[in-house]
Design goal:
The protein is α/β, with parallel strands linked by helices. It is built from eleven helices and ten strands. A hairpin with an 8-residue loop joins strand 6 and strand 7.
Length: about 350
Amino acid sequence: MTNPPVILYTYPESPFGQKLSLVLLLKRVPYSLVKVARMPPRDELDVLGVKYRRIPVLAVGNDVYFDTSLAILALERVFPDTPLLTTSPSKPGIEMASARFWADTALFRMASSLLPWEKMPKEFVRDRSGYMGAKISVRAMVENRPKVLSALRAHLTIIENQLSPSPPSTPYILRTPTPTYLDISLYFSLNWASKFPTTATIFGSTSTDFPAVKNWMKRIDELVKDVKEDPKTPKVTVLTGVTAARIIHAAASHYALAASGDPNDPLLYSAGVGGTLEFGEMVEVAPEDTGRLPVQEGRLVGLDAEQVVVEVEGRERGEDGRFGVCRVHAPRLGFTVQRRA
């Protein structure tokens, strides 16, 4: 069976884009890259009908994923013959929850607040304020920095204890011989933060704190270097937004939709407990916390405990004169779905 095309939409400075690039690299999955602007508007996604403002976005065939946690599950299932990044692809529950709600949420937000905000361009602070849904006070960020650094040390102590002692044969977070998605999730936030001048007291060359954490990060650095230098590692190709949209619209979906979804989900009208959503109707999907606007609209075609799937019409017509269609996937946890207003 031919593997579906994989296309990553990101910009170089995107932390989560870097994370997903690392996932694709370690899994040795061939993929193409569409470069998008650091801040909206992004015509490359608009041509797909995608209004979601967070980056990255990953397409696997005709399926477009809005969240790195959901994208990694799709990659594990569609590419089972590549190196696996979950200890149990069919039941990755606890490690995925730890990655999402600890590494990608608590730890990443902490790292974000340690950016040198006082040196950031005003337009960037303004854009991030819109993304957060509240005005960012640069002064408050600077004044709160000691408290955040103290909390970061507490998180690092947890990781240090988990890694100490670290058997040579299983030197990663979950005592595995190779890194898992949880390793990557923790690593990318810490590696990103370690480059900030504000974290020099922890990650600077003169600091001797958290030796196990630093050895673990160095081990991942070396692995990434080796994979990049391996001639067998697939090379990344760059596509325009229009070319990528045509490829996605022409591809098949790999995700088997359940005919009725979860029959007991209270959101569904068919559950008979006051639900309001029905398959085939237009809905709005958005994150619960940041980057809520603009909402993503689409026709509801899938809803279960793991994800919501909507069919989205793009702006590019096919050879038959019809607009192309793709399936957009968002996680149930951390996202809302409601009937279109």
